[in-house]
Amino acid sequence: MKPAEDSTAAQEPPPPAAPSTVWYEPLPSSLGAASLTQRPVRVYVDRIYDLFHFGHARALEQANKSFPNTYLLVGCCSDEVTHWWVDEVIPDAPWVINQEFLDKHHIDYVAHDTLPYADTSGAANDVYEFVKSIGRFKETKRTDGISTSDIIMRILKDYNQYIMRNLTRG
Asked: I want to staple 85 with a disulfide (CB 3.0 to 4.6 A). Which of 60, 71, 94, 158 is the partner?
């Protein structure tokens, strides 16, 4: 669900196109930064959006604005809030991205921060190693001080204070 509109808010992006209506032809590898293509550049972002926050929104915005004409695909848990900068949601996205996944969803670039994320099996040091190695990775910047872990830790740290405050309110 998108925030309520007001005169000072940023203009809301247009509604997404239906996935089946998007034309796709792989970008020639000679384009590099994809600046010469006339079609939208398809950029894929994945996250665990269990507690959607401002840092997530900024990462989606950065990925969306990474090319003049970006079509943003997001792999995430179902959550209406994540649709703000998103054109298409890919449910049950894989943890490790491979060529088959890129081809199936017609993805030109994968956008994420550059921190290495280990494969849960321990087989890979960085789940984005493949897309980085083929030059199809677009870096997004993390938002300092905003992360799901930080928010959860603040809630736990101040839990008793929240309980006491709410009990006194009735």
From this structure: 60
User: Which pair of structure tokens corresponds to residue 87?
Assistant: 């054109």
- Tell me the three-class secondary structure of 81-108, residue by residue: HHHCCCCEEECCCCCCCCHHHHHHCCCC
Q: What is the pLDDT of residues 36-86, one digit of tens each?
A: 567 888 999 987 767 777 788 888 999 999 888 899 998 865 556 556 678
Q: Residue 74: in which H helix or E strand, if any?
A: strand 70-75
Q: How many CB atoms lie within 10 A of CB 105?
A: 17
Q: How far is CA 67 from CA 2, 52, 90, 136, in A?
A: 23, 24, 21, 13
User: Measured between alpha carbons, how far is 26 from 95 in angstroms, rounded to an integer?
Assistant: 23
How far apart CA 6 and CA 106 sit, in angstroms, is: 36
The answer to whether residues 12 and 64 touch, using CB atoms and an 8 Å cutoff, is no
At residue 137, the 3 state secondary structure works out as strand
Question: Nearest to residue 46, comparing CAs of 129, 112, 1, 127?
Answer: 112
Question: Does an H or E element contain 164, and which?
Answer: helix 159-169
Which pTM was predicted? 0.51
Residues 53/66, Cβ–Cβ less than 8 Å = no
